[in-house]
Amino acid sequence: MAKTALKLDEMIDGEALRRELTALTLADSGDGSTPEIRASVLQKLRETLAAGHRKAEAMLMEDGGGTACAARLSHLMDEVIRALYDFAVTHVYRSKNPSAGERMTVVAVGGYGRGTLAPGSDIDLLFLLPYKQTPWGEQVVEYLLYMLWDLGLKVGHATRNIDECVRLSRTDITIRTAVLEARYLWGDTGLFDELVKRFDKEVVSSTGAEYVQAKLAERDERHRKVGASRYLVEPNVKDGKGGLRDLHTLFWIAKYYYRVRTGEELVEKGVFTRKEYLQFRKAEDFLWAVRCHLHFQTGKAEERLHFDIQRDIAERLGYTSHPGLSAVERFMKHYFLVAKEVGDLTRIFCAALEEEQAKHVPGFNRLLQSFQRRRRKLAGTSDFIVDNDRINIADDGVFERDPVNLLRLFWFADKHGLEFHPDALKLVTRSLKLIDRDLRRDREANRLFMDVMTSGRNPELNLRRLNEAGVLGKLIPDFGKIVAMMQFNMYHHYTVDEHLLRCIGVLAEIERGDGEKAHPLAHKLMPGLKPQREILYTALLLHDIAKGRPEDHSEAGAKIARKLCPHMGFSAAETETIAWLVEHHLLMSMTAQTRDLNDRKTIDDFADVVQSVERLKMLLVLTVCDIRGVGPGVWNGWKGQLLRTLYYETELLLTGGFSEVSRAKRAEQAREQLAEALSGWPERERDNILKLHYDNYLLTMDLEDQVRDAEFIREADANGKVFSAGVTMRAFEAVTEITVLTPDHPRLLSVVAGACAAAGANIVDAQIFTTTDGRALDTILIGREFDRDEDEQRRGVRVGRLIEDVLSGRSELPEMIEKRARPKRGHKTFRIEPRAEIRNTLSNRFSVIEVEGLDRPGLLSEITGAISDLSLDITSAHITTFGEKVIDTFYVTDLTGQKVENPTRQEAIRDRLIATLGGPSRAQKLKLAAE
């Protein structure tokens, strides 16, 4: 790693700053305590810091040195504090004959103590005073702190004598870490030297094991709070897993246990190899560069790489786009590879340290109450042993003798439930070059891999171990290409490889029977898919393996599957099934969420692609795992309900059980069933309800819903309500149903959608029906917000009341949307080409309009309003949101109830909808292209 020159002398001239501050006092005979002088000093220091920050940012843009930038900013702050201290003791609180108690040491601690600062970092200071203190010390400390605060700095501080530092360090790990990082800044050197000496002798020398355990526990808790995965797509650069704090924790532990003051000394003591130490330095340099750019760009101490800043940081770091990957995706892939490297080295280091501790400290092992060092043979092999309940290599030639042992190591670890010895992990890392074409084609190696991937114990953990060790990416080079790859959108929560591993974990959960409540159909089908379990696991591992390529990732992934699967031991028929599942892994999800499942043509088209019940079952399970593996909160009961409906309707068709009775006959049967269900009503009221509904309503809605709607209409009429909204809880599907009864008019859905947007309610589906007396009976499904039914019921009533207010004219919709609806963070960062398509092949009775674009508050209201303005009737709407992208599907007819067939009119509809989405029309595009 090329070391970036620090150029500290270019940042600030400390002596010149002192002279300038002194010059400010000359007019007042050297007295620096007046308000006027204080204000002048503040202004000078403020200008110095601002100029220094500008220099640091310019140098960072020029040389890219992250650690160097942090060191420059620390040096800038050092010189400012030193000059301010000298000014205070010389011109403000000067002691002509200082006693032994009138001395002080200013010590940098914490992150500042390491000699590194980000632009927005806190300044952590320890004011070290003699045992016998005087008012002079308190006055100087108070002056320094108020000046630093007035400069706008966040200062963490403590004022203690040496005895207090030592005593508090024994009982408080945070204080102990601060003192461990203590760096002399200014003042009396004797006090600092005594602190370092006593801290090492009285605290550090006898508490190594205790400190290591405490810092590892602290790290685990920090990871839990900010996100347990290092592959979150909006990572925390400072505190996230694989971030700067993980590196700092490593150095704290190493410095404490081995009692050194610098990282270089750790190489001399054999803790790190030179290569490992340089890897840490390189990772630290990259993370510091990202963090400094993040602070400079945002103008504050922002530690999370939010979507809305990632593109700017990528540009500042000089990343460019490549085919299939944008500049920001290339930057984030680099970020996650660095985070992965930090995790790999941290794991090896901590395991090695634990081994070192175990030699001397009985009971150190955090997992076992009583720790006894022991080595034993491992049944079935002479190449591996069990060393302190970890699998280890028998000798350094294990992998050279037989490269298949690279897979056997993980196979035995899984079989016996063993952790990995650091020596084994180090040798794996050094032996990755042994994974070549011959090993990838080796039958035994592939059998071992399949056993690990489909293990009944914890296949997700096994594959993550293989991935983090670098074996998985070498064994399947196409998988290696998507390691640490992120997709720049708000839908996917993890990198591509992490998503695939989590999908495997969901499948294992379903197979164990743990997922019955979340996805009952998949749970029910899984036992019958036992003969196909290896096919399912492999399809899940490969379904996104072609992400980041210019071509469609589903089709490219199918080609990869056809190439890989024969070598993995699959027959030609099994290979084709896996390739089909990979190619169509989005089909069921998109059909369920964006199509009208009550339309027979939807089921026909889907069944034509699926062709067999066995494929249908596997695709259902794969789809559930894929959605669940995207991230927390993505799966919900409504999506599950849609998938179940699509599955059962398609199964009926594929098994020949789909009804061939005419539409008119089925509608008549449905009307008779409703009449029977309302048999307790007065005959006149029952007949009035039966006459209200057209056939489409009776064929679409379940009998239970029809009865509920009948009661709703009856009550509204009895109370003389022109506008009425009812609420029904659907907790299992995680949606709330709003039923609206109102005089029909063309823009009704637009008004309802706008009211929902103003209420912060996310519409996921809508069914629009018209009664024979000219009223609209619309069913709107909104995403559930609260866990408790009573809370959600109150919310539903509030949304319903808001809809009534808008329909009755009591509230103005545009004002409500502007006032109440706020765009989600990061949405404006994304660019999605607006798209609008009109297709007449997806339904026998309706034209299907599909729009795609960047989501924003009130968009659905605008789109449905535009459709109404185009003299189209909406029969059903299906709203699907993938992070920042929305895909809305509308089943429509013209005002005569016919499909839209005229090409000119279709083009006009497309242009209007694309303009509503915020993009240029086709005519405008042609004009721009001509120009």
From TrEMBL:
ACT domain span: 737-818, 848-931
Record key words, sorted: Hydrolase, Magnesium, Multifunctional enzyme, Nucleotidyltransferase, Repeat, Transferase
Molecular function terms, GO-annotated: [protein-PII] uridylyltransferase activity; phosphoric diester hydrolase activity
UniProt-listed Enzyme Commission number(s): 2.7.7.59, 3.1.4.-
Region (Uridylyltransferase): 1-379
InterPro entries with a match to the protein in the record: ACT-like_dom_sf (IPR045865), ACT_dom (IPR002912), HD/PDEase_dom (IPR003607), HD_domain (IPR006674), NT_sf (IPR043519), PII_UdlTrfase/GS_AdlTrfase (IPR013546), Polymerase_NTP_transf_dom (IPR002934), UTase/UR (IPR010043)
The keyword Repeat belongs to this UniProt entry's keyword annotation: yes
One Pfam family, short name: ACT
Any coiled-coil regions, as ranges: none
GO biological process: regulation of nitrogen utilization
Domain remarks in the Swiss-Prot or TrEMBL record: Has four distinct domains: an N-terminal nucleotidyltransferase (NT) domain responsible for UTase activity, a central HD domain that encodes UR activity, and two C-terminal ACT domains that seem to have a role in glutamine sensing.
Protein name per its UniProtKB record: Bifunctional uridylyltransferase/uridylyl-removing enzyme
Organism: Aquibium oceanicum
Record gene name: glnD
